[in-house]
Amino acid sequence: MSTTLAPAPLSTADAQLLVDAAHEAAAAAGVPVSVTVLDAGGHLLAFRRDDRAVLIAGETSTRKAYTALQLNAPTADLVDAVQPGAPFHTLPTALDRPLLFIAGGIPVRRDGRLIGALGIGGGAPEQDHGFGVEALAKLA
Predict the structure, then answer these.
(1) R_g of the chain computed on alpha carbons
(2) Which terminus of the chain is less hemmed in, N or C, by CB atoms within 10 Å?
(3) Which of 62, 48, 134, 135 is nearest to 105 (CA)?
(4) How many angstroms separate the most distant Cα atoms in the chain?
(5) How many whole angstroms separate alpha carbon 139 and alpha carbon 63?
(6) How far is CA 27 from CA 30, 71, 107, 111, 140, in A?
(7) Which pTM was predicted?
């Protein structure tokens, strides 16, 4: 009988590293953002909003992280799936929380397993996604 160990959960230190790395990437590009990190259960581990970011950026980053976590996929990959007639067209009304299908939400995985999600809001969707990818590279 083989035993598979679960990967280490996303710690608050990991979450803070992701927040700091995403903010560094955004600051280097001159973009004010909000960053949210959730654990695998959807609980908030870390959050930071640049004072120059619009207030809605905080809600946006949280919804992007939640969407990436619930669907276990980068939100950038889901945009086409929610167009009329596409597989996820009615999904936002089927869950308790509204989802957000704009790039900037990225699942966080360890050993191939989902351990949390990162959400970034404030820049253009492609920028937010890029900041997230840069942040995840620092988690390794």
Answers:
(1) 15
(2) N
(3) 62
(4) 55
(5) 22
(6) 5, 29, 22, 30, 21
(7) 0.88
Comparing 89 with 110, the larger pLDDT belongs to: 110
Pair of tokens at residue 43: 């609980």
Instruction: Tell whether the model's pLDDT for residue 94 goes beyond 70.
Output: no
* pLDDT of 20 above 80: yes
Q: Which two tokens stand for residue 108?
A: 């966080």
Q: Count the Cβ atoms, other than its own, within 10 Å of residue 55.
A: 9
- Hey, how many other C-beta atoms are within 10 angstroms of the C-beta on 52? 11
Tokens of 5: 């160990």
Cα dihedral sign for 37, 43, 48, 51?
positive
Q: What is the pLDDT of residue 12?
A: 96
Tell me the Ramachandran region of residue 122: left when phi exceeds 0, alpha when psi lies from -120 to 50, beta otherwise: left
Which residue's entry shows tokens 């009329």? Answer: 84
The three-state DSSP-derived secondary structure of 39-83 is ECCCCEEEEEECCCCCCHHHHHHHHHHHHHHHHCCCHHHCHHHHC
pLDDT for 92 equals 65
Q: Which residue has the tokens 């083989």?
A: 2
